[in-house]
Specification:
alpha+beta, Thrombin, subunit H, 2 domains, six-stranded antiparallel beta barrel, six-stranded antiparallel β-barrel, 5 helices, 13% helix
């Protein structure tokens, strides 16, 4: 008991002296100052405390652990071909990835993925284009395990919760991170009414995740993630001249529409 208490005290102290004594009732005391006259029944033990050395790094470690947002950046990549491009992100260690359907419109094998920290560009194969949502499942031809993002149902988000958009705006500013807030799930049935549209102006249907993190061309297909780095949406479109009015395909559609590949 005494040794355990002393160990705790030593961990909390940085440097100096520790004084240990028993009072007339037999209770043990620890302090960084000596007892007052009459407090100690017997002699006072005095010990020198030294500042503990900085622990050595674990073998094989080179860099500090990534934050969840930094991990999400490493899971996101630039997609490009002669017609343009956008962003994508891995959802499995086997190179399966997701992007927006409009990013790979008309593409089969001509798209390449440029991964963070890699000089080589990797060929991309389009596995499936969603019939109704702005989503596409792709496969990056890479011969090593890929970092990937977990998926969170955006219906669990709270209004005002922080979110981050990750991508390659204008296809020039790689690995860009912008922070904003989640506003709501915007039901498709309300968009036409609230925007006063007489007819639907998109090829894609379904509900949308409304968020305020700044995005622009090149961000399309990139992930919107929560504080833990989990995907809540795929960047799809924005209302021009209103930087805070941006929309993503709910991540729950990924699990629903590509379940045959993910099981």
């Amino acid at each position: 008991m005494v040794s355990a208490m002393l160990s705790l005290f030593v961990l909390e102290a940085l440097a100096g002296k520790a004084y240990i004594w028993r009072d007339p009732n037999g209770q043990v005391h620890f302090s960084d100052s000596p007892p007052a006259a009459g407090e100690a029944e017997q002699g006072v033990e005095e010990r020198e405390l030294k500042e503990p050395p900085t622990p050595a790094p674990l073998k094989g470690t080179r860099n500090p652990p990534m934050s969840p947002i930094e991990h999400a950046v490493h899971c996101t990549f630039r997609l490009s071909n002669k017609r343009g491009g956008g962003s994508g992100f891995f959802i499995s260690p086997e190179g399966l990835a997701v992007t927006a359907k409009h990013v790979v419109r008309g593409v089969t094998y001509s798209m390449e993925a440029e991964l963070p920290g890699r000089k080589k560009a990797y060929r991309v194969r389009v596995l499936r284009k969603d019939r109704v949502h702005d989503l596409a499942l792709i496969k990056v031809s890479i011969d090593r395990t890929t970092p990937f993002l977990e998926i969170r149902d955006p219906r669990d988000l709270s209004r005002g919760e922080a979110v981050w958009a990750i991508g390659n705006p204008l296809l020039a500013f790689r690995e860009t991170v912008t922070r904003g807030t989640f506003s709501r799930i915007f039901p498709e049935s309300e968009i036409r009414e609230e925007l006063k549209w007489k007819r639907w102006q998109f090829k894609y249907t379904g509900d949308w995740v409304q968020f305020s993190a700044s995005v622009t061309g090149g961000n399309s297909g990139g992930p919107v993630v929560d504080q833990q780095g989990r995907v809540v949406g795929v960047v799809s479109w924005a209302i021009p001249a209103h930087e805070a009015l941006n929309f993503a395909v709910p991540s729950s559609y990924i699990l629903e529409d590509f379940k045959d590949y993910l099981d």
